[in-house]
Specification:
91 residues, 4-stranded mixed β-sheet, 3 helices
């Protein structure tokens, strides 16, 4: 089964690099490499951002497997991302 995480960022400021690194760490440490990660710069792909109707950037979206889940805001807190995308339970 294909699994996707998409990280939508506003260009390449230093915080973007931290967000990318954190998402890759989560993939490696928690998800056993099962997810493909796409990094989308909304400054370059503004039409895509409009089509997704974003309210805030950065946003991480888990599109597959369904249901679609989003984490809006700073994705540097691993537990927040894992819980928000329903990739594990803290209980």
């Amino acid at each position: 089964m294909k699994s996707d995480l998409k990280l939508y960022l506003p260009g390449q400021p230093p915080k973007s690099h931290v967000a990318i690194k954190t998402l890759h760490q989560i993939r490696h440490e928690q998800l056993q490499q099962e997810y493909e990660i796409a990094i989308i710069d909304v400054l370059v792909n503004s039409q895509l951002a409009k089509a997704k109707k974003f309210f805030a950037i950065p946003t991480v979206i888990k599109e597959l497997p369904l249901p679609i889940r989003r984490v809006i805001g700073d994705p540097s807190e691993k537990e927040k991302v894992l819980l928000g995308l329903e990739l594990f339970s803290s209980t």
